[in-house]
Amino acid sequence: MDEPTVAARQQAQCERMAWMPWLYHRAKPSVRAWAEPWQREIHARLTALEAVELEADCFVAPSARIFAEPNRTVEVGTRASIAAECFVHGPVTLAAEVSLNPRVYVDGGRAGVTIGPGTRVATGTHIFAFDHGLDPRAPIRDQPVRSRGIRIGADVWIGAGAGITDGVTIHDHAVVAMHAVVTRDVPEYAIVAGVPAVVVGDRRSMTPHGADPGPT
User: Fold this and answer.
1) Among 51, 59, 72, which Cα is nearest to 32's?
2) b/e for 151-181, b at 16 or more Cβ within 10 A?
3) pLDDT band at 71 (very low <50, low <70, confident <90, very high)
4) CA pair distance 116, 98, nearest whole angstrom
5) Following CA atoms 35, 81, 162, 131 in sequence, which dihedral angle do they give, to the nearest 10 degrees?
6) Which residues, in sequence order, are CB contacts of 116 under 8 Å at separation 6+?
């Protein structure tokens, strides 16, 4: 069997990085030598079309869909990443080291979504900073749209398939369980789970291996 060409190997690595962006940030110098120009091309195409502000070392998968009209800017901080098939509609601010894993949806509505440094957002999470009215006297298509905004702090872990609704603040160091639906504010270090999400634990009570130590 013929050896893959250099171009084919690079294309395969690009595909892997798109779905697992940490591979880009951890890449050895020989890979960075061609991967950084690849990312610069993606950044240039986005900035030519949309109101985006991208730090030079952030990662954006080519299949990510980023929409940022005037006054609905998308800002992506240093070493942040947006993985394959994400949808991001501004106003959205991703601070340094934020990671949006594949197929995350973020819509800033009018009031916006901000995500603090180091936060990890797992695959399939939906974050929507707007909501529709429910007045039974009018059809859904005619309902007013409200947007209060969503604030997610630093060092937060949002599990796969979670939903974050408009008006919520998730404070620093919190954890949102897989498939939880967050409809109210989450305190610092809290672990929340369920639909709607409720506090089920506190990170500060966990052992170094993540197990609840139980009564002491």
Assistant:
1) 59
2) bbbbbbbbbbbbbbbbbbbbbbbbbbbebbb
3) confident
4) 7
5) -120
6) 95, 98, 152, 153, 154, 155, 156, 172
Percentage helix, strand, coil for the chain under 3-state DSSP, each rounded to 5: 20, 25, 50
Tokens of 175: 């954890």
Q: What is the pLDDT of residues 105-143, one digit of tens each?
A: 999 999 999 999 999 999 999 999 999 888 999 998 899
Alpha carbon of residue 114 to chain centroid: 10
Comparison of pLDDT for 77 and 134, the residue scoring more: 77
Report how far residue 58's alpha carbon sits from residue 74's, in angstroms, rounded to the nearest whole number. Answer: 13
Q: What gap in Å lies between CA 33 and CA 98, rounded to an integer? A: 23
What DSSP designation does 99 have? E
Residues paired with residue 175 on neighbouring β-strands, in sequence order? 157, 191
- The pLDDT tens digits of the residues spanning 78-115 come to 999 999 999 999 999 999 999 999 999 999 999 999 99
Q: Determine if the peptide bond prior to 62 is cis (ω within 30°).
A: no
Both tokens assigned to 87:
């949808």
Cα–Cα distance list, 99 to 25, 119, 122, 193 (Å): 11, 6, 8, 21
122, 178, 115: which is closest to 149 by C-alpha?
A: 115
Please report the DSSP string for 175-216 in residue order. Answer: EE-TT-EE-S-B-TTEEEETTTTEEEEEGGGS-TTS------
Superfamily designation of domain 6-202: Hexapeptide repeat proteins (2.160.10.10)
